[in-house]
Amino acid sequence: MSSGQTVEGAGCVTWWGFGPAQDLLNSDTLRVRPHGELNILLVGSADPRHILKTITGLTDTHTLHVWVIENSMEVVARQLLLLYLSLLTPENTSLHKKTEVFLEVFGNSEIRKETEETLRHAAAHLSLSVTNTLSSDSHSHPCLDTSLLKFKERDEMVRIFKQWEGPPSVPASVRKVWDARVQQHLGTRYDSRHGCFDWDLTMKLHQSGELYQTANQSLLSTRVFNHVRYWGDIVSTPYLSFRTETENKDLLKKQNNQHVKTAQEISEVNILALFECLATRWSSLLNEDDPNPSSSCCQSTDSIITGEKIQNNPPASQTHTEPEQHPEQQTQELDLMNVSGVKVTFLSPDSLSKLPLKNKYRNLFNTIFCSASMVHQVKEIAEESGFTPVHNQSSDIYAVFTREIY
């Protein structure tokens, strides 16, 4: 296979990352976390894996502000959708059901009817939320802020959400666009046999009658042409984002030299743990008499700091929302968990080169993450700013650079 075909297989729209979720404030270069608000800049992360993982290391003395830059508004819209699903309250959906729906929306090209209804419901609420920011320039949830996006970018997001709300595409259509990508990718090898990475899908799901009835609208894109197509990755598994590794040895057992558990099952366990952490940090706000408020879900000695305890923000509304209730009948605030001391702000796709010119961003970020797909935009900036590679780092997946501050 030529290198051109390899690049083509990764697609031109990045729906998920190529590396596992990382606690970006608990790396080899940050042995002791700084006091006060912690700021992270994510450039092209594609999904919220690093956000969720970093939250697990926060203590009750931390506040975390994540700034997100993506290369298209379609990816921003999907980031918002995945964060929306992550912040659903236990009153709205159980942790296990939330994990299943999240994974399905995250990586499946075809989803169940129940999941499709959840996606449309989320799209309706997010569309209303973004529309509100067009008139007031304020965000309608303490954790999710789109007010710094340009008006045309917010208009584009509303268009995308409205598209998700519309009649769902039937599975046959998404199978056709997927098959077209596979045929282009494999070239002359396509007709020799079934694509090997489609074999399990065909034999274990389609022929066994799994109830995947509608196309996953959030993975379809009109970015390249005016007609809807799947322009994402067809060669890298989405389960890389939430790890195919685990410390639970039972999940890594083999029989006949084959793993007993699948990457999906490992990811499900890992995501469930992340959602439990979110619920723990949120629930500490609901019981002010709790003598031992949430300090950390996955606390290590590197993450323990001293400092003035921050004031908790009031929790989001806990009123249960029936799926059939139209969002216009509710208040403007999204009915989601308000995770204590955590805020995610989305910046314009073209804002990276402008950040150094604004004083508010100067020396602001404790950590900057840049994806492989966006590294060309920051390589020269990093070198000019005096960043050097860390050679004694423990991870062989991510390259880490640091700068001495005098």
In short:
The protein has ten helices and eleven strands. With 406 residues, it is an alpha/beta fold.
Q: Could you characterize the architecture of this molecule?
A:
- The chain has one domain.
- Helices cover 33% and strands 9% of the residues.
- With 406 residues, the chain is an alpha/beta fold.
Tell me the β content: 5-15%
Supply the helix-strand structural class.
Answer: alpha/beta
The main β sheet shows up as: 5 strands, parallel
Number of helices: 10
Helix content: 25-40%
Rg, Cα atoms, Å: 21 Å
Q: Overall pLDDT, averaged?
A: 77
Helices and strands, in order, run as HEHEHHEHEHHHEEEHEEHEE
Number of strands: 11
Query: What is the approximate shape?
Result: globular
Measured between the Cα atoms of the first and last residue, the distance is: 49 Å
Low-pLDDT segments, ≥5 res: 289-295, 298-331
Domain DUF4470: 15-111
Subcellular location: Dynein axonemal particle
Organism: Sinocyclocheilus grahami (Dianchi golden-line fish)
Keywords: Cilium biogenesis/degradation, Cytoplasm
